[in-house]
């Protein structure tokens, strides 16, 4: 919960800072999206998921940054998950692969 709060606070700060910049043009080459996925079938997807998509039109990249990745082989995984004490990590992948993986589960 603490990490979610920090992530949201950072997103608001970064977003408000970007909007306040007077030199920002409407023809930006980078697009940023907040992706919100609905609930899934698996227990860990019960409440859905959110990730950050960064699309660089000049470089031709379309990357999704996902802070909700965990290791299923973690010792006492189910207990830690249930107690909200599971260690999460950042992963990144292409937008197309993110969609494929989320639709698969």
Description:
By secondary structure, the chain is an alpha+beta fold. Helices cover 34% and strands 30% of the residues. It has a 4-stranded antiparallel sheet, covered by helices on one side. A hairpin with a 4-residue loop joins strand 2 (49-56) and strand 3 (61-69). 4% of the residues are buried.
Approximate shape: globular
* Major sheet summary line: 4 strands, antiparallel
Number of helices: 3
Whole-Å distance between the termini?
23 Å
> Element order, helices and strands?
HEEEHEH
Number of strands: 4
Q: Helix proportion of residues, in percent?
A: 25-40%
Unreliable spans: none
Portion in strands: 25-35%
Oligomer: single chain
Broad structural category: alpha+beta
| Spatial ordering of strands, largest sheet | 1-2-3-4
Radius of gyration over C-alpha positions, nearest whole angstrom:
16 Å
